[in-house]
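Hey, I was hoping to borrow your eyes for a little while. I've dropped the whole record in just underneath, so have a look:

——
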Amino acid sequence: MSKYIYTNPLDEGYKQFTLTKKQHNDLFKYRQITWRDKYEYYYNGNEILLHKFANVPTKILITILFPFYLLFYGVGNFKELIEEMKSGYNQKKYGSFTVDSISSGSDTYSEIIKIINQKKEGII
């Protein structure tokens, strides 16, 4: 079994940018941000990457609910539960996050680049 190794997009020539929750939800009809999500956005001349992670409140909730998970799944599954907890806390290390890609030929790509340029010019 191969071991996952996270590659930081910044090391591959991408630039990081931010979108507000409203901008994100307006752009992505089927990827709405919920209370448990945290996004990181990266772009280069060819594509935009959206990395979706669990945010801090979600990690706190998982920690609080751990004893209940242990009771529900049983002590015999303790090792698996610990592995799940570790992957939830260290998502980049274990690869337990979602990545979406938007290619440069799409309308969404153009709209995001327009937002980025407006931020650079101080319009937004």
Summary: The two ends are 47 Å apart (CA to CA).
